[in-house]
Amino acid sequence: MIDEDHPELSIRRQCELVGLNRSTRYYEPTPETPENLELMRLIDQEYTAHPFFGSRKITQWLIGRGHEVNRKRVRRLMRVMGLEAIYPKPKLSLAGRGHKVYPYLLRGVAVERVNQVWSADITYVPLPGGFMYLAATIDWFSRYVVAWRLSNTLDGAFCQEMLEEALGRGRPEVFNTDQGVQFTAGAWTGRLERAGVAVSMDGRGRCLDNVLVERLWRSVKYEDVYLKGYERVPELEGGLRAYFGFYNTERRHQSLDYRTPAEVYGVGAKTA
């Protein structure tokens, strides 16, 4: 679909013509063996339903379903998928080497307005023959998905693109993430600081502070990804674009007095 040696059209222009983001020229999913992909598909579904499950419980769950696996293998696959149980661990692992870890700023803070707090997170999306990573930024108060991106690697470039798009739409007072290397990198934290945004970080282990993003992932997967069974990256991106449009403008939330995220965000948001 994308010809890197096209004599007349740049990669950017080809992506525009077929409706892909520039970073979506990753258009080939990351490959894995068929057996591992099946295990990862099952792990993803069980983790989405029970995000407090760690590798030990996931391993026992897979064994109970007749799969011959050990915890070492499951732990490796969960690392590839970017998954950790959401409960805090007694000994926190380190962020990227040389990366500054910022304090958690939201303990005891009441979130009462849009653009007060944003969060970002990354989740795994299965495809036939491989998988992709999906990142999203959400406004805590309104549940509005401010920006999102797909990638076939966990490098920070697609997160930076998402951040630039999000900051083009508004400025949060605080931006909260976990301590993943994408979010402790100087490119990410430095961009937020230059924009006048306070950087907040959970401990490693996806603590409950990021529960709103975990709920978003459950909605995305149960209401779209698992139902549609996308086979190619362009289909996945088009489907996610449609779903996030639905989520923001049509999906009413009880916690928002049955208003949509866009209705709540649009009323109180101040653009950059």
Automatic annotation (TrEMBL):
Pfam families xref list: HTH_21, rve
InterPro entries in the record: HTH-like_dom, Integrase_cat-core, RNaseH-like_sf, RNaseH_sf, Transpos_IS3, Transposase_IS3/IS150/IS904
Ranges for domain Integrase catalytic come to 99-269
So where does this one cross the membrane?
Answer: none
Q: Which spans of this chain does the record mark as coiled coil? A: none
**GO biological process annotations for this chain's record?**
DNA integration
Molecular function terms from GO: nucleic acid binding
- Signal peptide range: none
Q: Which SUPFAM superfamilies match?
A: Ribonuclease H-like
Q: What is this protein called?
A: Integrase core domain protein
Taxonomy, top ranks, is: Bacteria, Pseudomonadati, Planctomycetota, Planctomycetia, Gemmatales
